[in-house]
Amino acid sequence: MAELKNPYQVDVPISYGGDYYRSIDGLTRTLRILLSSYIVLRILSSLFLSLTMGDWPRVLDSLNYSIGTISMVIQAVSMLVTLTLVIIGATSLLWIYRAHSNLPALGARNLSFSPGAAVGWFFVPIANLWKPFQAMRQLHCASQQPEAWEDQSAPGSLIWWWLTYVLAYTIFPVLHYVILGILVGMGNTGSIPLVMMAMSIPGLIATFLFLHLISSINRSQKSAFQRSMAPAMPWTSPP
């Protein structure tokens, strides 16, 4: 006879109808910390960029702070932003894989995306403009209502997350270099910091929305798992 495991123990695979449920609590906490760190670093980067605009260079010069020093700080923060973003990308893909792996154990059937496909579509050119969104819709709906997920519609937060994500990490990187080239050609390099600050806004919005989504999906999966286990829990009379 198989050993009965505690279904509420964190990060322990639980057998349920041939499938396995594994809590994503720990991974969600890690991802929340990384996303929050990215938001802070992005805001700091924008603040330092603003010091290179308007009268700030003259003010800083009077305080014995050169633009060169500020530029070095901006470069250092930018490197941290890039490093954090790479770690977030890897952790997010792992989180998506693990969260999708739980869906069969929660009772979801007729799923269109496997855990591997939900991750893999991010790397397929052209198709990565809509396929990952469809996979995330499946994840969100099947986590909330596993047995009737196909009847659910995508929430507004998921739609806006995907729109801002595509804008920030697909369209704006190309547009960024085009606009910078135009400004340099016009000799208007003073507007570059303002353009860079403006182009960071969609990324910040996407990060805030993704924070909300992973927290919501984590809560939904825990709730759905507890509901699925409730009939099997032995009843004991109170002392």
Architecture overview:
- There is one protein chain.
- α1 (25-50) packs antiparallel against α3 (67-101), α1 (25-50) runs antiparallel to α7 and α1 (25-50) packs antiparallel against α8 (201-229).
- 65% of the residues lie in helices and 3% in strands.
- With 239 residues, the chain is an all-alpha fold.
- A hairpin with a 2-residue loop joins β1 and β2.
- It has eight helices and two strands, in the order ββαααααααα.
- It has one domain.
- It has a two-stranded antiparallel ribbon with strand order 1-2.
- It starts with 13 loop residues before the first strand and ends in a 10-residue tail after the last helix.
Relevant terms:
65% helix, elongated, 239 residues, 8 helices, single chain, mainly alpha
Write the layout of secondary structure elements.
Layout: E1 14-16, E2 19-21, H1 25-50, H2 56-62, H3 67-101, H4 115-120, H5 131-144, H6 156-186, H7 192-199, H8 201-229
Antiparallel strand pairs: 1-2
Helix pairs in contact: 1-3, 1-7, 1-8, 5-8, 6-7, 6-8
Helix share of residues? 55-70%
Q: Major sheet: size, sense and barrel closure? A: 2 strands, antiparallel
Anisotropy-based shape: elongated
Mean pLDDT: 81
Helix/strand/pairing class, anyone? mainly alpha
Following the backbone from N to C, one meets helices and strands in this order, namely EEHHHHHHHH
- Number of distinct helices: 8
Q: Can you tell me the number of structural domains?
A: 1
Oligomer: single chain
- Estimated radius of gyration: 23 Å
List the strand order in the largest sheet: 1-2
Range of strand content: under 5%
- Strands, total number: 2
The first-to-last residue Cα distance is: 30 Å
Residue stretches low in confidence (pLDDT < 50, at least 5 long) are: 1-18
